[in-house]
Amino acid sequence: MNSPFRAVLSPCVGICEMRDDGLCAGCFRTLDEIARWGTMGDDERLRIMDGVLPTREAERADG
Description:
By secondary structure, the chain is mainly alpha-helical. It has one domain (14-63). The chain is 43% helix and 0% strand. The chain has helices at 31-36, 42-62. The radius of gyration is 13 Å and the shape is globular. It starts with 30 loop residues before the first helix and ends with a helix. The model has no long low-confidence stretch (mean pLDDT 90).
């Protein structure tokens, strides 16, 4: 069965530690994003997964 929908799973990698910059050490989400993840729509989840989180990860690596 081909579905036009993409399942948006949590980016959690099991390293749940909030850093001083307010982001999780494992998934780079804020506490608000983590708390709201279950109620977010797929469009917002995809925006965070595809745009926001990679940018945060790159910024931390350059950091």
